[in-house]
Amino acid sequence: MTERVIVRAPNHLGDVVLALPALRAAGADVLVRAGLAPLLHLARLIGRIIPFEGTIDAALALRAARYEKGVLLPPSFSSALIFALGGVAARRGTDTDGRRLLLTDPVPVASFAGLHRATQYMRLVGEAVAEGAAVLPRLDIPRPSHEGRVVGVFPGGNARSRRWEPARFAELVRRLAKRGNRVIVFGGPTERQLTARVAGDAAVDLGGKTDLAQLAAGIASCDLLVTNDTGPLHLAAAVGTPTVSLWGAGDPVVTGPLGAGHRLLRHPELDCVPCTKNDCPLAIDRYRCLTVITVDDVEAVIQ
Questions:
Q1: pLDDT tens digits along 237-250
Q2: Which of 36, 87, 143, 231 is the most buried (most CB within 10 A)?
Q3: 299-303: which pairs have CB atoms within 8 A and are 24 or more residues apart?
Q4: In terms of DSSP bridges, do strands 182-185 and 204-205 run parallel, antiparallel, or are they unpaired?
Q5: 32 contacts 52 by C-beta, under 8 angstroms
Q6: Cβ distance 288 to 268 under 8 Å?
Q7: Is the Cβ–Cβ distance between 129 and 123 less than 8 Å?
C-alpha cells in the first residue's frame, strides 16, 4: 500500500517557485496558502493541491485525508503545528522556530549552510542533489512573439530593505521608453500607487490588474524583467525571461535567480552585506546597499 504523503509548500511566491523541483520530485499532495495555489496549478503537479486560509481548516483537511507522512518546507512553528493537529504521524522539517518537539524527523538547519534554497527543499523531500548540480524551477508558459523589445519592471516587494527607490525606477522607465522600448510595470493590488508613479506616461501600468496566472503570462511576454529581489524575480526565471535584479538585503548564494540570463546588481564589498533583515538596522547610511545602485548603473547593464 502506498504511503500517503503531504508536503507543506512555502508561504511566499518566490519560495514556492524555488520549491517547484522539490514538489515535482516528491510527487505528493501539497498543502499551500490559497493565494498561491494558482501557481501550483500552472505547474501541473502530480499530487492533489490543497489550498487553505487558516490553521484550523488546514488541520481538518489533513485529518480527513489521514496522511501518514509530512514534509515541511517553510521553517515556521505554525506550519509544524498544522501537521501535528492534522494527525500527520511522521513530520520532517528543519529544527527552526522552536518547533523541534513537533517534529519526528528534525533536520539540523546548520546542515543547509551555503546551499541554495531550491537545493534545501530538494533535500527536505529526500532527493539527493550532487554538489554543484543545477536545480532549475520551470513553468511552461507560452512566450508570444512581438515586434520591438518589451521590458517589464517590478518596483515593489514586501521588505523595505529590498526595494529600490520609486523615483529611480520612474527615471529608469522614462529612459527605457525614450530608447524605444515598450515598458510594462507590474505590481500587486496594494502597489497601485507605486506602479502608477513609476509608469507615469511612459509605460503600461498593470499594477493590481493581474492575478497570479496573468502575472506569469505577462512576465513571459517580456524580453527582460528589471526587478527588486522579490517573488517575480524567481517567477521570471522559471518562465525563461532574463532578469536584471537590484539587491540590498539578501544573499544571492541562497536565494538568487536560477538559470542563465540573469544579471545581479549589488555591492558585496560593503561591510553590512549580505544581510537578511527586512528593515535596515543601521542608524547611519540606512539602505546604503540600495542607494549606491544608480539609474546609470542599471541602464548600462540593460543596454
A1: 999 999 999 998 88
A2: 231
A3: 299/172, 299/175, 299/176, 301/244, 301/263, 301/265, 302/151, 302/176, 302/224, 302/226, 302/244, 303/179
A4: parallel
A5: yes
A6: no
A7: yes
For residue 299, the Cα-to-chain-centroid distance in whole angstroms is 24
Residue in 141, 142, 143, 220 with CA at minimum distance from that of residue 184: 220
Is domain 150-302 classified as CATH 3.40.50.2000?
A: yes
First to last CA, the chain: 58
- Neighbour-count burial of 281, counting CB atoms closer than 10 A to its CB (0-12 exposed, 13-18 middle, 19+ buried): exposed
Sketch the domain layout of the chain as residue ranges.
5-124, 150-302
Grid cell digits, residue 178: 525614450
CB 279 within 8 A of CB 287: no
CA distances from 5 to 23, 64, 73, 119, 248 (A): 11, 13, 13, 20, 38
**In this structure, what are the phi and psi dihedrals at residue 219, rounded to the nearest 5 degrees?**
-65, -35
pTM (2 d.p.):
0.94
CA distance 288 to 43: 38
Reported as a single tens digit per residue, the pLDDT across 95-152 is 999 999 999 999 999 999 999 999 999 999 999 887 767 789 999 998 888 889 999 9
5-124 carries CATH number 3.40.50.2000: yes
Q: What stretch of H or E contains 231?
A: helix 231-239
In angstroms, the CA 23 to CA 47 distance is: 9
Would the CATH topology of 5-124 be identical to that of 150-302? yes
Cell of 13: 511566491
Sheet holding 182-185, edge to edge: 204-205, 182-185, 150-154, 224-228, 243-246, 262-265
Query: Which residues, other chains included, contact 167 with Cβ-Cβ below 8 Å and sequence gap of 6+?
Result: none
